[in-house]
Amino acid sequence: MSPVFVAIDTPDVAAATALRQSVGPHVGGIKLGLEFFLANGVEGVNQVVGEGVPLFLDLKLHDIPNTVAGAVRSLGRLEHAPAFLTIHAQGGRAMIEAAVAARDAVVPGLKLLAVTVLTSLDDVDLADIGVSSGSLDQVKRLAYLSVDSGADGCVCSPKEVAALRDMLGSEAALMVPGIRPTGASAGDQKRVMTPRDAMDAGASHLVIGRPITR
Ligand code: C5P
After folding, report:
1. Which ligand 1 atom sits nearest the alpha carbon of residue 33?
2. How far is the CA of 53 from the centre of ligand 1 (A)?
3. Average pLDDT, stretch 91-109?
4. 157 within ligand 1 shell (Cβ under 6 A)
5. Residues pairing with 6 in the sheet
6. 208 - beta bridge partners?
7. 140 is catalytic
């Protein structure tokens, strides 16, 4: 099974469906995020995702435990259960455990991936919100908390994948964006790795958007 999930970043059902049809047979799955989900909801996801194309639903849930549990249960309305869903590690242990319990009850095959520190935040931004330890320490702290609370793994940048694989062991899922083949344009990604290097560093899955969709 290919480790590649193709990021389909569009609010348009027809465009997303066309991409899924053309790339679906060649990759491990597709990723739909907030842009698509808020425009089209569960119905839109049902239209795009066919049988046999695993879905990574990147909704980055972050709320009180009861609300996050309810959101996870609502995924039971999807015709095909997603393979992966993101939650924010900063929601804390009780929120992560509530997501895990709801998953176990309604969509048992779903793997929960925790987002630790958004890669758009640097150490200055973290200091502004009261985190003084620097980004790598904070990423490791939140990744440990997530997996210890029952999450199946993390989304992390190429910069962090080796450290997280080392800390979390071989079972954890590590979904890595910021992937560019040798010679491809980095676009707005600042820190990139080739697919080979990311896998060698310990990624279990790769999120690749524009190098495939454009
Ligand atoms: O087109 P590209 O390969 O850069 O797409 C990467 C995908 O991964 C996009 O959907 C982007 O939002 C997502 N992503 C990212 N960096 C993160 C988290 C998610 O690029 N830290």
Report:
1. 10
2. 19
3. 98
4. yes
5. 30, 208
6. 6
7. no
